[in-house]
Amino acid sequence: MRKFYRLKPSLLIPLIILQFIFVSMCSILYYFERDFLGLLLLLISIAIAISIIVYILSDFIEIDESGVKYVTLFKRYEMSWDDVVTVGISDIFKGRPGWSPCIYFTTDTAPVKYVMLDMIGKEFIMLGYRRSAIEEIRKYWQGDIVNVYELPLPHEKRDYTGLSLRDRLLGNRWFLRGGLILGLLWISIAVFLSTRLNNDYLLIAVIILPFALISFGSMAIYLGNWKKLYVTAMPVAIIVTVYMLLSLFFKTTFN
């Protein structure tokens, strides 16, 4: 039996590092301000970071002689090898940068070209493509693996037919990475300036709000599901904005 995280290590590790960066920025903000709101923001950021890390580490697939199991915090799907009809590799994972190919297990006979997280269920399980997973599958699966290859197809050779402009942008790795880097850069600048401009918190809040959405929204896209945007971008943007506005109010009222 072998366990594979649904997200590949090349994506899993940066996401975890991102959470530590987020908590570190809130810690720096609290270090300079040392007020109740700063402490509250720090505690909330720690809670958000822990919840995201626990979520992504609890999202994995187990492959053994009995079949395939997909496990998360709240869901668990199992397929025995007798139930599996098709094992294959999709060309495109819609919603993931670069449309990273995925290994899928299904009870249907038709090959799958596009996959999405919403497809996961009792009759469909998938995980990010990796050669080690293919080797593990071949130990137990005697049939053919549809569209199997040793390395993912080059980006320029993917079939874009029928994809919208939004899906094409999501397929551009640098489009998403650029948004993530830009968001982190501007949030870092805003936190730094907030420690220097004690009378201009409203301006800092306006700076943080859009770029917090970009940064953590990019992370939600990396996770592969737009629905996770409310778990990442919105709470962070709202918390930081409220914190800045309340700080501005207290500083202008009592100083």
The count of DSSP E runs of length 2 or more, i.e. the number of strands, is: 10
Principal-axes shape call: elongated
The assigned structural class equals: alpha+beta
- Percent helix, as a range, is 40-55%
Taking pLDDT < 50 over at least 5 consecutive residues as the criterion, the unreliable ranges are 150-156
Mean pLDDT: 70
- Could you give a short account of the major beta sheet? 4 strands, antiparallel
Radius of gyration over C-alpha positions, nearest whole angstrom: 22 Å
Order of helices and strands: EHHEEEEEEEEHEHHHH
Structure notes:
With 255 residues, this protein is of the alpha+beta class. The chain has two domains: 2-56 and 172-254; 74-162, no CATH class. It is built from seven helices and ten strands. The strands form three sheets. A four-stranded antiparallel sheet has the order 1-2-3-4, covered by helices on one side. A hairpin with a 4-residue loop joins β3 and β4. The chain is elongated.
